[in-house]
Amino acid sequence: MHKTFLKTAAFLGALGVILGAFGAHQLKSMLSESVVLIFETAVRYMLYHVFALIAVAILYQQFPNKLLKSAGIFFIVGIILFSGSLFILTYKEALVLPGLKWAGPITPLGGACFIAGWIFLALGIKK
Q1: What is the DSSP letter of 63?
Q2: Range of the domain at 50
Q3: SS3 (DSSP) at 31
Q4: What are the tens digits of pLDDT across the range 48-69?
Q5: Any alpha helices (H) in the chain, and if so which ranges?
């Protein structure tokens, strides 16, 4: 499982850098500052949790347990829900699309997954 976490972290890390560069070079000329800040928050939290996932992978290799595995899964789901929903909201604003209001309420669920991931990480280390 540790290699799966590492591969996922590598992919999401590369994606985070690509999206961050896109945001820095393209979005600033297209969108309001408040929408760019939402996008930057998505990228920042994505990259923070990529590093957390790498830590989980390294720890899981040495001390495999269900709590660490859960931490890694929650970090991945958190990235998808939290950052993904903010990316969708940015996309909605960029293209002036109606709808997609469902993405807003998903963001806190992703945040809850991040919190759960950190709690499971702490418990998994303690074990």
Answers
A1: S
A2: 2-126
A3: coil
A4: 999 999 999 999 999 999 999 9
A5: 2-22, 28-30, 33-62, 66-78, 84-95, 103-126
Give the tens place of pLDDT for each residue, 35-52: 788 889 999 999 999 999
pTM to 2 decimals?
0.89
DSSP 93-127: HHHT-S--TTHHHHHHHHHHHHHHHHHHHHHHHH-
User: CB of 125 within 8 A of CB of 59?
Assistant: yes
pLDDT tens readout for residues 106-121? 899 999 999 999 999 9
Q: How far apart are CA 99 and CA 3, in angstroms?
A: 38
Residue 102 phi, psi dihedral angles, 5° rounding: -65, -20
Instruction: Please tell me the total count of domains within the chain.
Output: 1
Assign 3-state DSSP to the chain and report helix, strand, coil percentages, each to 5.
Answer: 90, 0, 10
Tokens standing for residue 103: 């993405």
How many residues are given for the chain? 127
